[in-house]
Amino acid sequence: MTLREASGTPTATTKVFRLPDLGEGLTEAGLVQWLVQVGDTIRTDQPIAEVETAQSVVELPSPYAGVVLALHGEPG
């Protein structure tokens, strides 16, 4: 996911959010569904996607607040 970070400055920063470390030695996950859409304004820690690992389906929180510019990857 790519987003324009919310800030109090006139120049916004673009951030790319990559799959974080899911713990327990898990190195792969499949995208189940996006919980946001391009153009959405999101807050820090808001769930943005559901991913499935070998052990469970988990929601991924956003590490940033801002406006979603692009979603990378298709569910399934």
Question: What does the model show?
Answer:
With 76 residues, this protein is mainly beta. It has a domain at 1-7 and 32-76: RNA polymerase II/Efflux pump adaptor protein, barrel-sandwich hybrid domain (OB fold (Dihydrolipoamide Acetyltransferase, E2P)), CATH 2.40.50.100. The protein is built from no helices and 7 strands. The chain has strands spanning 2-5, 14-16, 30-34, 41-42, 47-52, 57-61, 66-70. The strands form 2 sheets. A 4-stranded antiparallel sheet has the order 2-1-7-4, with no helix packed on it. Strand 1 and strand 2 form a beta hairpin. The protein is globular and about 35 Å long. The two termini are 16 Å apart. The model has no long low-confidence stretch (mean pLDDT 81).
Judged by helices, strands and strand pairing, the structural class is mainly beta
The CATH topology name of the domain at 1-7 and 32-76 reads: OB fold (Dihydrolipoamide Acetyltransferase, E2P)
From the spread of the alpha carbons, the general shape counts as globular
**Termini separation:** 16 Å
Query: What is the chain-wise order of helices and strands?
Result: EEEEEEE
Mean pLDDT: 81
Rounded radius of gyration (Å)? 13 Å
User: What is the architecture of the domain at 1-7 and 32-76 at the second tier of CATH?
Assistant: Beta Barrel
* CATH homologous superfamily designation of the domain at 1-7 and 32-76: RNA polymerase II/Efflux pump adaptor protein, barrel-sandwich hybrid domain
Sequence of strands across the biggest β-sheet: 2-1-7-4
Would you report the number of β strands?
Answer: 7
